[in-house]
Amino acid sequence: MIQIIGYDIEAEYECEEIKLSTIAEPKSLDEYEINIIDLRDSKIWRNNTLLNGNLNNLNDFHHLKSMINQRKFSKIIIIIPSNCDFIFKLINSQSQSIELKNMLQELRRYIFKELLQLKYVANLFYENTTTTINQNDVEASFYFGTNVDIITKSNKSEKATTIESENIIITSLNIPKTPDAIKEYAKFLGLLKFKQNVPDWFYEIDKFDDRKLKAEIIKIEEETTRFEEKRHSKQKKLHENNNHKSILYTNSDELVEETFKILEDMLKCDLSEFNDTKKEDFEIKKEDITFIGEIKGITSNVKNSNISQLDNHVQTYKDKLIDEEKGTKVKGLLIINALRTRSPETRDGVDQDQIDLAVRNKSLIITTIELLNLY
Protein backbone atom coordinates (compact mmCIF):
# COMPACT_ATOMS: atom_id res chain seq x y z
CA MET A 1 0.00 0.00 0.00
CA ILE A 2 1.06 3.58 -0.76
CA GLN A 3 0.14 6.72 1.19
CA ILE A 4 0.40 10.02 -0.66
CA ILE A 5 0.71 13.02 1.66
CA GLY A 6 0.12 16.47 0.21
CA TYR A 7 -1.53 19.82 0.79
CA ASP A 8 -4.63 19.35 -1.34
CA ILE A 9 -4.30 15.95 -3.02
CA GLU A 10 -6.16 15.33 -6.27
CA ALA A 11 -8.89 12.71 -5.78
CA GLU A 12 -7.77 11.04 -9.04
CA TYR A 13 -4.71 9.78 -7.15
CA GLU A 14 -6.72 7.40 -5.00
CA CYS A 15 -7.26 3.76 -5.90
CA GLU A 16 -7.20 0.38 -4.16
CA GLU A 17 -3.41 0.51 -3.64
CA ILE A 18 -3.13 4.26 -2.95
CA LYS A 19 -4.60 6.20 -0.03
CA LEU A 20 -4.53 9.98 0.37
CA SER A 21 -3.72 12.12 3.43
CA THR A 22 -3.03 15.79 4.03
CA ILE A 23 0.20 17.21 5.41
CA ALA A 24 -1.85 18.50 8.35
CA GLU A 25 -3.24 15.03 9.19
CA PRO A 26 -1.03 12.23 7.82
CA LYS A 27 -1.72 8.65 8.90
CA SER A 28 0.95 6.55 10.60
CA LEU A 29 3.76 6.03 8.10
CA ASP A 30 4.41 2.40 9.10
CA GLU A 31 0.86 1.45 8.13
CA TYR A 32 2.07 1.71 4.52
CA GLU A 33 4.96 0.19 2.59
CA ILE A 34 5.65 3.47 0.79
CA ASN A 35 4.90 7.08 1.81
CA ILE A 36 5.11 9.76 -0.87
CA ILE A 37 5.29 13.35 0.39
CA ASP A 38 4.20 15.53 -2.52
CA LEU A 39 5.36 19.16 -2.16
CA ARG A 40 4.21 20.28 -5.61
CA ASP A 41 0.99 22.05 -4.59
CA SER A 42 1.54 25.79 -4.99
CA LYS A 43 -0.55 26.43 -1.83
CA ILE A 44 2.34 25.09 0.24
CA TRP A 45 4.63 27.88 -0.93
CA ARG A 46 3.00 30.76 0.90
CA ASN A 47 4.17 33.20 3.56
CA ASN A 48 1.80 35.85 4.83
CA THR A 49 4.58 37.92 6.38
CA LEU A 50 8.08 38.18 4.94
CA LEU A 51 10.04 36.62 2.10
CA ASN A 52 12.71 35.32 4.48
CA GLY A 53 10.14 34.16 7.03
CA ASN A 54 8.78 30.66 7.45
CA LEU A 55 6.13 28.87 5.42
CA ASN A 56 2.55 29.23 6.65
CA ASN A 57 2.33 25.49 7.32
CA LEU A 58 5.86 24.98 8.66
CA ASN A 59 4.50 23.48 11.90
CA ASP A 60 2.95 20.67 9.84
CA PHE A 61 6.42 20.07 8.36
CA HIS A 62 7.85 19.72 11.87
CA HIS A 63 5.25 17.10 12.85
CA LEU A 64 5.85 15.22 9.61
CA LYS A 65 9.61 15.35 10.19
CA SER A 66 9.13 13.72 13.61
CA MET A 67 7.03 10.94 12.03
CA ILE A 68 9.71 10.33 9.39
CA ASN A 69 12.42 10.05 12.05
CA GLN A 70 10.38 7.64 14.18
CA ARG A 71 9.25 5.29 11.41
CA LYS A 72 10.58 1.72 11.56
CA PHE A 73 10.44 0.28 8.06
CA SER A 74 8.34 2.26 5.57
CA LYS A 75 10.03 3.84 2.54
CA ILE A 76 9.86 7.63 2.05
CA ILE A 77 9.77 9.46 -1.30
CA ILE A 78 9.83 13.29 -1.36
CA ILE A 79 8.66 14.98 -4.58
CA ILE A 80 9.96 18.57 -4.58
CA PRO A 81 8.03 21.25 -6.51
CA SER A 82 8.51 22.34 -10.06
CA ASN A 83 9.24 26.02 -10.57
CA CYS A 84 6.24 28.01 -9.35
CA ASP A 85 5.58 31.34 -7.65
CA PHE A 86 6.28 31.79 -3.94
CA ILE A 87 3.65 34.20 -2.58
CA PHE A 88 4.60 36.49 0.30
CA LYS A 89 3.77 39.88 1.81
CA LEU A 90 6.00 42.80 2.55
CA ILE A 91 5.27 44.77 5.74
CA ASN A 92 2.09 46.86 5.26
CA SER A 93 1.98 45.87 1.62
CA GLN A 94 -0.02 43.74 -0.76
CA SER A 95 1.02 40.24 -1.76
CA GLN A 96 4.16 39.84 -3.81
CA SER A 97 5.61 36.81 -5.59
CA ILE A 98 8.95 35.38 -6.59
CA GLU A 99 9.71 32.26 -8.60
CA LEU A 100 11.21 29.35 -6.67
CA LYS A 101 14.17 29.31 -9.05
CA ASN A 102 15.11 32.74 -7.71
CA MET A 103 15.09 31.67 -4.06
CA LEU A 104 17.01 28.38 -4.18
CA GLN A 105 18.72 28.82 -0.82
CA GLU A 106 15.39 29.26 0.95
CA LEU A 107 13.84 26.35 -0.98
CA ARG A 108 16.80 24.17 -0.05
CA ARG A 109 16.39 25.14 3.62
CA TYR A 110 12.65 24.40 3.68
CA ILE A 111 13.00 20.96 2.10
CA PHE A 112 16.31 19.59 3.36
CA LYS A 113 16.57 21.23 6.76
CA GLU A 114 13.08 22.07 8.00
CA LEU A 115 11.27 19.02 6.60
CA LEU A 116 13.95 16.32 6.40
CA GLN A 117 16.69 17.56 8.76
CA LEU A 118 19.27 15.69 6.71
CA LYS A 119 22.90 15.63 7.80
CA TYR A 120 24.00 15.64 4.18
CA VAL A 121 22.26 18.40 2.20
CA ALA A 122 22.51 18.34 -1.57
CA ASN A 123 22.76 21.59 -3.45
CA LEU A 124 19.86 22.57 -5.67
CA PHE A 125 20.04 24.10 -9.16
CA TYR A 126 17.47 25.35 -11.62
CA GLU A 127 17.49 23.72 -15.06
CA ASN A 128 14.66 22.23 -17.08
CA THR A 129 15.50 18.64 -17.96
CA THR A 130 13.87 15.42 -19.13
CA THR A 131 14.44 12.00 -17.57
CA THR A 132 13.16 8.76 -19.12
CA ILE A 133 11.42 6.42 -16.67
CA ASN A 134 10.22 3.10 -18.08
CA GLN A 135 10.18 4.56 -21.60
CA ASN A 136 8.17 7.60 -20.43
CA ASP A 137 9.72 11.09 -20.47
CA VAL A 138 9.29 13.02 -17.21
CA GLU A 139 10.10 16.73 -16.84
CA ALA A 140 11.96 18.40 -13.95
CA SER A 141 12.69 22.04 -13.10
CA PHE A 142 15.52 21.39 -10.67
CA TYR A 143 18.42 19.00 -10.24
CA PHE A 144 20.67 18.04 -7.33
CA GLY A 145 24.33 19.02 -7.17
CA THR A 146 25.80 15.76 -5.90
CA ASN A 147 27.67 12.73 -7.20
CA VAL A 148 26.60 10.45 -4.34
CA ASP A 149 23.59 8.09 -4.24
CA ILE A 150 22.16 9.20 -7.57
CA ILE A 151 19.20 7.09 -8.72
CA THR A 152 18.06 8.88 -11.91
CA LYS A 153 19.79 11.29 -14.26
CA SER A 154 18.41 13.52 -16.98
CA ASN A 155 18.79 12.47 -20.58
CA LYS A 156 22.04 13.61 -22.26
CA SER A 157 22.90 16.29 -19.66
CA GLU A 158 23.05 13.60 -16.92
CA LYS A 159 21.91 15.88 -14.12
CA ALA A 160 20.77 14.14 -10.92
CA THR A 161 16.95 14.20 -10.76
CA THR A 162 16.47 11.52 -8.09
CA ILE A 163 18.81 10.91 -5.17
CA GLU A 164 18.78 8.97 -1.91
CA SER A 165 20.00 10.50 1.33
CA GLU A 166 19.83 8.81 4.72
CA ASN A 167 17.30 6.24 3.47
CA ILE A 168 15.01 8.92 2.00
CA ILE A 169 14.46 9.19 -1.74
CA ILE A 170 14.16 12.77 -3.07
CA THR A 171 13.14 13.56 -6.62
CA SER A 172 12.58 16.70 -8.67
CA LEU A 173 10.72 14.72 -11.35
CA ASN A 174 7.22 16.01 -12.03
CA ILE A 175 5.61 12.54 -11.85
CA PRO A 176 2.14 12.61 -13.46
CA LYS A 177 -0.59 12.66 -10.81
CA THR A 178 -2.16 9.35 -11.77
CA PRO A 179 -2.17 6.01 -9.91
CA ASP A 180 -0.45 4.23 -12.79
CA ALA A 181 2.37 6.78 -13.02
CA ILE A 182 2.95 6.71 -9.25
CA LYS A 183 3.03 2.90 -9.17
CA GLU A 184 5.31 2.73 -12.22
CA TYR A 185 7.78 5.09 -10.56
CA ALA A 186 7.73 3.04 -7.34
CA LYS A 187 8.35 -0.13 -9.39
CA PHE A 188 11.20 1.60 -11.24
CA LEU A 189 12.81 2.40 -7.87
CA GLY A 190 12.47 -1.26 -6.88
CA LEU A 191 10.04 -0.48 -4.06
CA LEU A 192 7.16 -2.34 -5.70
CA LYS A 193 7.52 -5.67 -7.44
CA PHE A 194 6.54 -5.60 -11.09
CA LYS A 195 4.28 -8.39 -12.29
CA GLN A 196 3.45 -9.05 -15.91
CA ASN A 197 -0.19 -9.62 -16.78
CA VAL A 198 -0.83 -13.33 -17.26
CA PRO A 199 -2.06 -14.04 -20.84
CA ASP A 200 -5.21 -16.13 -21.32
CA TRP A 201 -3.39 -18.90 -23.21
CA PHE A 202 -1.03 -19.52 -20.28
CA TYR A 203 -3.61 -21.47 -18.29
CA GLU A 204 -4.22 -23.85 -21.21
CA ILE A 205 -0.67 -25.20 -21.04
CA ASP A 206 -0.38 -28.44 -19.04
CA LYS A 207 3.04 -29.44 -17.73
CA PHE A 208 4.31 -31.68 -14.92
CA ASP A 209 1.26 -33.06 -13.02
CA ASP A 210 -1.06 -30.17 -13.99
CA ARG A 211 -3.81 -32.43 -15.43
CA LYS A 212 -3.90 -34.63 -12.35
CA LEU A 213 -4.03 -31.64 -10.03
CA LYS A 214 -6.80 -29.97 -12.05
CA ALA A 215 -8.86 -33.19 -11.98
CA GLU A 216 -8.38 -33.50 -8.22
CA ILE A 217 -9.37 -29.86 -7.72
CA ILE A 218 -12.57 -30.41 -9.73
CA LYS A 219 -13.37 -33.48 -7.62
CA ILE A 220 -12.76 -31.55 -4.39
CA GLU A 221 -14.94 -28.67 -5.61
CA GLU A 222 -17.76 -31.10 -6.47
CA GLU A 223 -17.50 -32.72 -3.03
CA THR A 224 -17.39 -29.30 -1.42
CA THR A 225 -20.55 -28.32 -3.29
CA ARG A 226 -22.31 -31.50 -2.15
CA PHE A 227 -21.26 -30.94 1.47
CA GLU A 228 -22.32 -27.31 1.25
CA GLU A 229 -25.74 -28.30 -0.07
CA LYS A 230 -26.03 -30.94 2.66
CA ARG A 231 -24.99 -28.42 5.29
CA HIS A 232 -27.52 -25.92 3.97
CA SER A 233 -30.26 -28.57 4.09
CA LYS A 234 -29.39 -29.47 7.69
CA GLN A 235 -29.28 -25.81 8.69
CA LYS A 236 -32.69 -25.25 7.10
CA LYS A 237 -34.15 -28.21 9.02
CA LEU A 238 -32.54 -27.02 12.25
CA HIS A 239 -34.09 -23.60 11.65
CA GLU A 240 -37.51 -25.23 11.21
CA ASN A 241 -37.00 -27.20 14.42
CA ASN A 242 -36.13 -24.02 16.30
CA ASN A 243 -39.25 -22.36 14.96
CA HIS A 244 -41.36 -25.26 16.25
CA LYS A 245 -39.59 -25.17 19.62
CA SER A 246 -40.32 -21.45 19.91
CA ILE A 247 -43.79 -22.37 21.26
CA LEU A 248 -41.96 -23.04 24.55
CA TYR A 249 -41.35 -19.31 25.16
CA THR A 250 -43.63 -17.26 22.85
CA ASN A 251 -47.17 -15.97 23.28
CA SER A 252 -49.79 -14.06 21.28
CA ASP A 253 -49.49 -14.10 17.48
CA GLU A 254 -46.06 -15.78 17.41
CA LEU A 255 -47.35 -18.69 19.47
CA VAL A 256 -50.57 -19.01 17.44
CA GLU A 257 -48.75 -18.90 14.08
CA GLU A 258 -46.28 -21.68 14.92
CA THR A 259 -48.92 -23.81 16.70
CA PHE A 260 -51.06 -23.63 13.56
CA LYS A 261 -48.17 -25.05 11.50
CA ILE A 262 -47.78 -27.97 13.92
CA LEU A 263 -51.53 -28.71 14.01
CA GLU A 264 -51.80 -28.55 10.23
CA ASP A 265 -48.98 -31.07 9.88
CA MET A 266 -50.25 -33.40 12.62
CA LEU A 267 -53.96 -33.33 11.69
CA LYS A 268 -53.55 -32.79 7.93
CA CYS A 269 -55.81 -29.76 8.00
CA ASP A 270 -55.72 -26.23 6.61
CA LEU A 271 -56.05 -23.32 9.03
CA SER A 272 -55.15 -20.62 6.51
CA GLU A 273 -58.83 -19.88 5.86
CA PHE A 274 -59.78 -19.68 9.53
CA ASN A 275 -61.44 -16.34 10.30
CA ASP A 276 -60.34 -15.06 13.69
CA THR A 277 -63.40 -13.30 15.18
CA LYS A 278 -61.64 -12.83 18.52
CA LYS A 279 -63.54 -15.80 19.98
CA GLU A 280 -61.89 -19.21 19.71
CA ASP A 281 -58.35 -19.33 18.23
CA PHE A 282 -59.06 -22.19 15.83
CA GLU A 283 -61.73 -24.52 14.52
CA ILE A 284 -60.78 -27.89 13.06
CA LYS A 285 -63.30 -30.32 11.56
CA LYS A 286 -62.32 -33.99 11.38
CA GLU A 287 -65.04 -36.39 10.19
CA ASP A 288 -68.03 -35.78 12.54
CA ILE A 289 -66.05 -33.93 15.25
CA THR A 290 -65.27 -30.22 15.43
CA PHE A 291 -62.38 -29.16 17.66
CA ILE A 292 -62.71 -25.69 19.15
CA GLY A 293 -59.34 -24.47 20.32
CA GLU A 294 -57.82 -21.80 22.52
CA ILE A 295 -54.06 -21.03 22.33
CA LYS A 296 -52.42 -19.14 25.17
CA GLY A 297 -48.95 -18.19 26.43
CA ILE A 298 -48.81 -17.17 30.09
CA THR A 299 -46.15 -16.72 32.75
CA SER A 300 -48.25 -18.41 35.46
CA ASN A 301 -49.53 -21.98 35.63
CA VAL A 302 -52.87 -22.97 34.09
CA LYS A 303 -55.79 -21.12 35.70
CA ASN A 304 -59.50 -21.95 35.99
CA SER A 305 -60.24 -18.85 33.92
CA ASN A 306 -58.25 -20.31 31.01
CA ILE A 307 -60.37 -23.48 31.05
CA SER A 308 -63.62 -21.55 31.54
CA GLN A 309 -62.83 -19.26 28.61
CA LEU A 310 -62.38 -22.32 26.38
CA ASP A 311 -65.67 -23.80 27.67
CA ASN A 312 -67.47 -20.55 26.82
CA HIS A 313 -66.25 -20.85 23.23
CA VAL A 314 -67.36 -24.49 23.10
CA GLN A 315 -70.83 -23.76 24.49
CA THR A 316 -71.30 -20.81 22.10
CA TYR A 317 -70.41 -23.07 19.19
CA LYS A 318 -72.84 -25.76 20.42
CA ASP A 319 -75.63 -23.18 20.59
CA LYS A 320 -74.87 -22.26 17.01
CA LEU A 321 -75.17 -25.93 15.96
CA ILE A 322 -78.52 -26.23 17.77
CA ASP A 323 -79.80 -23.18 15.89
CA GLU A 324 -78.61 -24.72 12.63
CA GLU A 325 -80.04 -28.14 13.66
CA LYS A 326 -76.70 -29.85 13.17
CA GLY A 327 -75.60 -32.83 15.23
CA THR A 328 -71.83 -32.44 15.03
CA LYS A 329 -69.81 -33.40 18.09
CA VAL A 330 -67.74 -30.60 19.63
CA LYS A 331 -64.54 -30.99 21.64
CA GLY A 332 -62.54 -28.25 23.38
CA LEU A 333 -58.73 -28.09 23.16
CA LEU A 334 -56.66 -25.74 25.35
CA ILE A 335 -53.14 -25.50 23.97
CA ILE A 336 -51.24 -23.53 26.57
CA ASN A 337 -47.64 -22.38 27.06
CA ALA A 338 -47.82 -22.07 30.84
CA LEU A 339 -44.88 -20.81 32.92
CA ARG A 340 -43.33 -19.77 29.57
CA THR A 341 -40.46 -17.76 31.08
CA ARG A 342 -39.08 -20.88 32.82
CA SER A 343 -37.11 -23.67 31.17
CA PRO A 344 -39.30 -26.76 30.50
CA GLU A 345 -37.47 -28.98 33.01
CA THR A 346 -38.25 -26.56 35.87
CA ARG A 347 -41.95 -26.07 35.10
CA ASP A 348 -44.60 -27.42 37.45
CA GLY A 349 -47.28 -29.75 36.18
CA VAL A 350 -50.91 -28.63 35.79
CA ASP A 351 -52.62 -28.56 39.20
CA GLN A 352 -55.24 -31.21 39.94
CA ASP A 353 -58.02 -28.59 40.45
CA GLN A 354 -57.59 -27.40 36.87
CA ILE A 355 -57.45 -30.99 35.61
CA ASP A 356 -60.72 -31.78 37.42
CA LEU A 357 -62.38 -28.70 35.93
CA ALA A 358 -61.25 -29.70 32.43
CA VAL A 359 -62.63 -33.22 32.99
CA ARG A 360 -66.02 -31.80 34.05
CA ASN A 361 -66.04 -29.56 30.98
CA LYS A 362 -64.96 -32.48 28.76
CA SER A 363 -62.02 -30.36 27.54
CA LEU A 364 -58.42 -31.35 26.91
CA ILE A 365 -55.42 -29.41 28.25
CA ILE A 366 -52.29 -29.73 26.10
CA THR A 367 -49.17 -27.92 27.25
CA THR A 368 -46.77 -26.82 24.53
CA ILE A 369 -44.21 -29.25 26.01
CA GLU A 370 -46.60 -32.14 25.40
CA LEU A 371 -47.59 -30.80 21.99
CA LEU A 372 -43.95 -30.94 20.90
CA ASN A 373 -43.63 -34.47 22.30
CA LEU A 374 -46.75 -35.54 20.40
CA TYR A 375 -45.46 -33.89 17.25
How many distinct helices? Answer: 8
- β-sheet strand percentage: 25-35%
CATH topology of the largest domain: Rossmann fold
Helix and strand succession? EEEEHEEEHEEEEEHHHEEHEHEH
Q: What would you call the structural class?
A: alpha/beta
The best one-word shape is elongated
- The helicity comes to 25-40%
Q: Which regions contain 5 or more consecutive residues with pLDDT less than 50?
A: none
Task: Please tell me the total number of domains.
Answer: 2
What would you report as the Rg, rounded to the nearest angstrom?
Answer: 42 Å
CATH architecture of the largest domain: 3-Layer(aba) Sandwich
Instruction: Give a short account of the largest sheet.
Output: 7 strands, mixed
Span between termini = 59 Å
Which strand order do you get reading across the main beta sheet?
Answer: 2-1-3-5-12-11-10
Q: For this structure, what is the CATH class of the largest domain? A: Alpha Beta
Quick check: average pLDDT? 89
Tally of strands: 16
Layout: helices, strands, pairs:
Elements: E1 2-6, E2 18-22, E3 34-38, E4 46-47, H1 58-70, E5 75-79, E6 85-89, E7 95-99, H2 104-115, E8 123-133, E9 136-145, E10 150-153, E11 160-165, E12 168-171, H3 179-188, H4 210-245, H5 252-267, E13 282-286, E14 289-297, H6 304-323, E15 329-337, H7 352-360, E16 363-367, H8 368-374
